Amino acid sequence: MCTHPIRRYVPSAWETEWSLQVLRLNDRTPSWKTGCELMRRNQTAIRAWLAFANARRPMAGRRAPPLPPVEALWFFSYHAFVDCNGAWLDAVPIEPLVGFLRHPQMHCMQLPRSQQWQFVTTKAHLLPSWATEVWPGGDKSSSLAIFFDLGASLYNKGGGGASMKWFVDEYAARGIRFDRVFAWEAAAHSDSKIYSAMPNDIVDRISYYNLPVDAAVGAKHNPWRTLRAVARTVDFVVVKIDIDNSPIEEALIAELLDDGELATLIDELYFEHHVRDSPMWAYGWRANTVTNQTLVHSYNTFTRLREMGIRAHSWV
Description:
Oligomer: single chain
Number of strands: 9
Distance between the termini: 37 Å
CATH architecture of the largest domain: 3-Layer(aba) Sandwich
């Protein structure tokens, strides 16, 4: 029975162009010449994307994000929200799947390497949801907001930046306060190191598992088992996957793609997909990438997740 709005994914024309070209983009050379040539062809779209992402950031007094300008619709992909009868309710933009799914100015802009590094972990191009998009009517009384951080590091520290703090702060600024936080981190830390930097209200809401994620289906520390136990379809669930262990990450994603019921529990997913033959190998990714998957798999994976109704973002 249909009880809540349905998300339908609509890829942009720009994304569709890249999807048709992706088989040509498994370029093993550090320059990634073919991909960069295609990326540099769309400077107007890149500038407009970043300008809109900046305009969409939280500002004092703002309760809802701006809509993208009409001329931007050809390059922004989005999820259309429709009711149970198919009537249009809303559309929420998301980053187009273009390039090698990082910041659009990374690698191909012919900048010195020292300047390129600033784009490796930047998140300025991402479009997280706002409360008004999650609960358009403003009624969230029966809904919890839950965050799952797989590869959490420490609250204010991490190899690619402080992911947990970033998610807590960014969503709070958009009107979404996480009622529960679940975190997994394989690197051993003392209790004092884990909790000292956490605000008291996060300590009161977090379940921090200082041990590796187990990708075996139904395992005690398989995060999907926990998610099924604590979340409902009415809840707003955000998941970040960045474990730096490709076999485990791929197994988790495969389980999600094979389980439509599990997918209905996840609203927003951030996944750093480690693949072969990507320009990221020039930035040291090769050491953490034991996989046969390529950029083709990335495009297929993110497209399928989005088509399942999940706002799937390529993480950094």
